[in-house]
Amino acid sequence: MLDVSKLVVAYGQSEVLHGLDLTVAPNEIVAIMGRNGMGKTTLMRALMGIIPTRSGAVRVGPTDITKLRSYERVVEGIAYVPQGRMIFSNMTVQENIETGLIARGESRVPSDLYDLFPVLLEMKERRGGNLSGGQQQQLAIARALATKPKVLLLDEPTEGIQPSIIREMGRTLKRIRDEKGLSVVVSEQVLSFALDIADRVLVIENGEIVHENLRAEVDEAKVAKFLSV
Ligand SMILES: Nc1ncnc2c1ncn2[C@@H]1O[C@H](COP(=O)(O)OP(=O)(O)OP(=O)(O)O)[C@@H](O)[C@H]1O
């Protein structure tokens, strides 16, 4: 569903991704693990068209999105939950979700979104800024899902979130994968979370995938070593 081929991304003279290849199937969760500064956020931002691609190609299904602008990529079925969530603090929960509907030309929040995140239904009139970190993360995921994506990108979703909410988020992401058949790419530094949700675990180091394993075959000690400073 998501097919990234020889992706090169640079900030001015400084090349961060050096020809990265990545394929994610429908109904698959891939965790990209790596220490700070290894290129996870750069990959996500490049896939969303927020920063330009120097060379290489990105496809969603059969569609080449490499040259598309961010909003056009959303229409083609790629959605993004940025690091730090970036919800709109002064807008209500419902209004935040509605911003995701615009891409599809719809105006009503589908009820299955609130089924996935019942707490958001309870709080739909509350301002986003008044939600807890975990609730804001759920809101950011709901807003992304409102665009009806085929591919969902999440950048370090567990950052600053308490363990019980992290476990709940893991359950929800697996449910989203299974019920909606999504391809999910999640960048992570927390190995336990990655092992909980991922079908495949990749390690990125200095802008390159240096290690890859199916979940069942992951050598935890080896991955942990990549993550330790
Ligand atoms: N706007 C920018 N201009 C120049 N260099 C940048 C910019 N943003 C990131 N970088 C550099 O690109 C490299 C990759 O950063 P990136 O944010 O993608 O890493 P990351 O793996 O997401 O790390 P983190 O977990 O800290 O978010 C780093 O060396 C970083 O300093």
TrEMBL record:
One of its GO terms (biological process) is L-amino acid transport. The lineage of its organism: Bacteria, Pseudomonadati, Pseudomonadota, Alphaproteobacteria, Hyphomicrobiales. This is Urea ABC transporter, ATP-binding protein UrtE. Keywords: Amino-acid transport, ATP-binding, Nucleotide-binding, Transport. One of its GO terms (molecular function) is ATP binding. It holds the Pfam family ABC_tran. Belongs to the ABC transporter superfamily. InterPro entries: AAA+_ATPase, ABC_transporter-like_ATP-bd, ABC_transptr_urea_ATP-bd_UrtE, BCAA_Transport_ATP-bd_LivF, P-loop_NTPase. Signal peptide: none annotated. Residues 2-229 form the ABC transporter domain.
